[in-house]
């Protein structure tokens, strides 16, 4: 077992009056791929936003490499080496493909990922580099979003629903690229609705329900029934 | 010939309006901030220019070397200290805060400089002229127009060709995601305001050379700036120049018909354009 | 069954107390000509008119999401029509003001058709430009003094009532009356079905449209009614000012910026906010106005500080602390107390 | 029986994303139609087209025989089409009861006591009566979804569109929900229900359509459709196995 | 115990018109000193309290503070000065509220006709002293006649109270200029704070205007004057009302200020003295400059004279407690003030009396500008101090 690279303790999250997360506990071990599953609205995105610094947290609620980072701003957290591939891709529409990638590299962290490395991973992007990011197909946009996050050379990368709205063939491609992405010691958290996919690429899995962890375990040790129960709260 | 003259003079006037509007366009484009104090900031820059040029015995244009950094500094502090806290979906908080700012600047200038009209002495530049195809053009208005084009070209280059410009566009597109890229939006917005007020400094000096000013004249010019920005389309800098020129030409041509129509014609053309194109002539194409 | 034990009320204890106190206050105000000095009478009258403007602007911006910086268009329009209808039409000023309201509604229709195409900041600037167009257009009407403006002939003022005291009382009651009319209409409107629709739109346009609310029509209605009432208030304002000129009539500072100040300081999107804001504004003005520039700087500073420290305004602060509602707009579901059921 | 809703060749795309691709089908009066399909297939978009939140690029929508393609969302709602939103869209500053009242007064056109009584009844039925005075912004997700259903019912629709309202319910709650929907159906209301919780869906609907990339790729008797190879393939996930 | 008479005073202390009121502090302080001992009326000493309020250069605000003074402070007399935007709203409030009012520092036509005054009827409570457009015209023609330039005149009149009055076809410049053989080219009324005058300049150039006249605010004139040079329009005489009154404006124009001309209502060279202090015009102007370090301005004399008239009225009123008696005292005024004689029996129209007006030119002497009186045929008692030079 590795040391946890990220530890979350007693995390709450609110949108105005609405509470989306309730006292969540969770950790990510260094070098592992962790999957987070759960029904629509369970709080998966909110969890990732909390880690990335886009929600208001207490300092101690999120620890990264032993440091409390819960109260830092998103840009400070990004500089520490946590990158998020957001749900729905969220490219910058007024930036070209290459500019989207370049802005990902703004943190200036050293590492294996560079424009060339990203183009190597997704050759199609090099062909489209001058194009407006919005003119790409969904799958290509997802590639840009992933590339953009990689450009920061993060130690921990968070994927929010990378396969959402993509054709199966593209999903397959992206998942095929995943081991190469996390191969070099990077840790990853993957939020995924396709449970089969989630289980197959991850070593451990958490299931969220209504803002709480309803199941946790090694990916290969969980039965479909466990998951189904955790997923829908079917007792 | 008279009509040609009206159009040429209107175009040059449009340069002045574009200069007024460029800074406004920048911050409107980057952070959707409606800055009511923009006109008063231009006047503030004019006073700063006056004070430096008198105190140091500089030509007003040389005073830019002092006024531009000073205004940029004011902009950065203002943005981070006050305006950043008002940004959001609601346009009212920045509207009211900049209104408050406008009142404060105006009255502080009145306290400091009295209501006396002031003018910057730019010597021969003010009255120099040259003939051009049967028209007589002033060197100063032509210079103003050229500076406006240069400022806008510069901003455009900065916006589309530099990392800072990328940061502006990214933050403007999506603040949250920009933060994830390691951009501190408070800082980015501070820089945007600093840049905006640097342009304001240029506008202020040219206003101060062109005509006399007193603390109260900022507000009157503000509306033309907004019109130029909106005609051109949100955050489109060349559009702002076009907007300024359309406004200037509408005014001089209106005035040619009847002097009472000068301002009215500008406003009517503005409304007409919006009636046909509610997002301005060159709206940004979002996803 | 438990269901039968529930019923719905639309009032509360505090609201009843507030209504009672409000009624007493109103009676006292109605009687002001008998107890107040001439200056107070005028001041209260002016305060009333500002309250009316603020309530109307609040209805637009706070409830319909129409942030206009051009309401001076209708204030000035109402004022000018008062002058035009009395001087050239020979109408009684009160009648003229009523007609000004009607015509205000009429001109607001094409204006709305134009500016409703704009959103957010564009809408705000668009309304401002419209007001400028009004200003510049009235400046072209030489019969009304063009850019110099004109005074209301003393004869017309005298025709309002016999004697100075009666005239002043009447002007006061008109101001008070219009204000009560405005505040009451806003309140009743917001309690009505259309009002509920408006509040729903403010919260969530997508859901509102899917629940049968015609967003455009609702906002349009609000805009037109607000314009009409604003024009009437404008008429009353210039009945007090006695003199009108384009710059004064269409002053963005006097009729919109200060009004926005009032509403936002008091608490936008509440009926109580404009009332509190008006009191604060007049308190500042009466105590500091003689300081000239300092007064205006204080005003600017107050605007900034309140916006930064209490973005929901003073009433917002009070309400978050005490959960008060003096003008109940909502519905309460209560369990019945009676044992008979 | 006559059709209450008819879609004819409805198409809509956002740039490269096609959310409706020559979509055609009918819903009989009083029938309950289930809709399944993978994430992003265009199910919610189809609701947006039916309710008028989205305008189609081409095609026609008929409701009770009338062409409503050109009318706006508000008019369709008043005409008898109500929906629940997949991502709940409460009026956050209004109470639960007031949220319901918006539907009763605006969509159903009721007023006064009549509207209030209807809202109380529906709140009772959906189990939200106890929360009637709570601001909707403070509700939990489940209650927000209940509120969606409540509002839709308070609109007194003849066609009810439900978008993923069973997700996250316990089995007992799921049963209650199924009973509620069956009861609504019993009053003659036609229903289209998008749901990933297939067993709940199957307990209500009498016909199923499958959507993928905006296209209808399967239609018919629920059991048959679920057993088809196409659906099996698209639903490689948990529901197919269950 | 001495009774107190309250005088309300409205002026634009702040805002764009603040230049007109810049001497208020100095003049009021001086007046208050004079009044400190009280004023004798019917053998009784009265305190005179002056309550001064700022109109913020805003006519709405002017009406408001006037009403405040009348209704709240219950002043016995109200006075106001500086442009129609101040005098008219204040006078309107006074008229309706039936309080005596004296105003100055606004030509009488915009005052009288701008308030819808009817000749023969006039007003009951409100009185005004200043000069009229006929005097401006007389002074200007006098000056232009001497210049010997072409009689082609370009007119620049804004769409505001002064501009409309000056440009009025009958009451303003056009008719008398035509009568005197001058050809006035008036393209129309521009909106104040315009950014462009090229149409005017083109028209003036085409018509060969050698004289430019009008009534402008300083920023508009500065814009026009710079554009004129840029567009190659070089008139020989430029005589503009209002904009060229203040030394600070001329100073701000630099060398381009030299030779501009304007009407002169009052100057240190005026051969008048204060009925209150006995000081001459020169004494008053020098006193102001010495105490503030600023050059003298024309409104100083009128502000002072306003309170001379008040003091005189207070002395003569038969019953200071009675508005009607005070009013009677005003109507019967005949006082030689520091700006000339004030006597409403001699007015050109009801409620108005006039003070003399001459024309002057700003001439550079060393580093400073001096306003030389160059034409005085309508008021020969005011000596010439210079000779008109062409631009
Ligand atoms: N900006 C917001 N304002 C209010 N509520 C929000 C906001 N964003 C999310 N929520 C609510 O918070 C809850 C958790 O949302 P979240 O997006 O984290 O869920 P999720 O598990 O990622 O769901 P999905 O699978 O649909 O992406 C949901 O009920 C959602 O409606
Ligand atoms: N307004 C819009 N602009 C651009 N794309 C949109 C818009 N609305 C929906 N989409 C895209 O259309 C596709 C279909 O979305 P839709 O919400 O209809 O899917 P769905 O079938 O309801 O999925 P789910 O099961 O996840 O709810 C998605 O890829 C979505 O991103
Ligand atoms: Mg999510
Ligand atoms: Mg959906």
State the helix count of chain A. Answer: 9
Report the C-alpha radius of gyration of chain A, rounded: 17 Å
Low-confidence stretches of chain E: none
For the largest beta-sheet of chain E, the strand count, sense and barrel status come to: 7 strands, mixed
The percent of residues in helical segments of chain A reads: 25-40%
* Strand line-up in the sheet with most strands of chain A: 6-7-8-3-9-10
Q: Give the CATH level 1 class of the domain at 6-87 and 158-232 in chain A.
A: Alpha Beta
Strand order, main sheet of chain E: write it out: 2-3-1-4-5-6-15
Rough shape of chain E?
Answer: globular
Mean pLDDT of chain A: 86
**What is the overall silhouette of chain A?**
globular
Per CATH, the superfamily of the domain at 6-87 and 158-232 in chain A is: P-loop containing nucleotide triphosphate hydrolases
Short structural description:
The complex is a heteropentamer of chains A (235), B (287), C (341), D (242) and E (391). By secondary structure, chain C is mainly alpha-helical.
What would your notes on this structure say?
Chain D: It comes from Ruegeria marina. Chain D: Keywords: ATP-binding, Nucleotide-binding, Transport. Chain D: This is Amino acid/amide ABC transporter ATP-binding protein 1, HAAT family. Chain D: InterPro entries: AAA+_ATPase, ABC_AA/LPS_Transport, ABC_transporter-like_ATP-bd, P-loop_NTPase. Chain D: One of its GO terms (biological process) is D-alanine transmembrane transport. The complex is a heteropentamer of chains A (235), B (287), C (341), D (242) and E (391). Chain A is an alpha/beta fold. Chain A has a domain at 6-87 and 158-232: Rossmann fold (3-Layer(aba) Sandwich). Chain A is built from nine helices and ten strands. In chain A, the strands form two sheets. Chain A has a six-stranded mixed sheet, sandwiched between helices. In chain A, strands 2-1-4-5 form a four-stranded antiparallel sheet, with helices on one face. In chain A, helix 3 packs parallel to helix 6. With 287 residues, chain B is mostly helical. Chain B has a single domain (2-276), classed as ABC transporter involved in vitamin B12 uptake, BtuC. In chain B, strands 1-2 form a two-stranded antiparallel ribbon. In chain B, helix 1 (2-31) packs antiparallel against helix 8 (185-210) and helix 9 packs parallel to helix 11. The longest helix of chain B is centred in the first third of the chain and has 30 residues, at 2-31. The radius of gyration of chain B is 19 Å and the shape is globular. With 242 residues, chain D is α/β, with parallel strands linked by helices. Chain D has two domains: 1-80 and 158-166 and 192-242, 3-Layer(aba) Sandwich (Rossmann fold), CATH 3.40.50; 82-156, no CATH class. Chain D has a six-stranded mixed sheet, with helices on both faces. In chain D, strand 7 (159-163), helix 6 and strand 8 form a beta-alpha-beta unit. In chain D, helix 3 crosses helix 4. With 391 residues, chain E is α/β, with parallel strands linked by helices. In chain E, the strands form four sheets. Chain E has a seven-stranded mixed sheet, with helices on both faces. In chain E, strands 7, 8, 9, 10 and 11 form a five-stranded parallel sheet that branches. Chain E is globular. The longest helix of chain E has 18 residues, at 299-316. Chain E has 13 helices and 17 strands. The chains are: A alpha/beta (235), B mainly alpha (287), C mainly alpha (341), D alpha/beta (242), E alpha/beta (391). Bound molecules: adenosine-5'-triphosphate (2 copies) and magnesium ion (2 copies). One magnesium ion is lined by residues 43-44, 86, 163 of chain D.
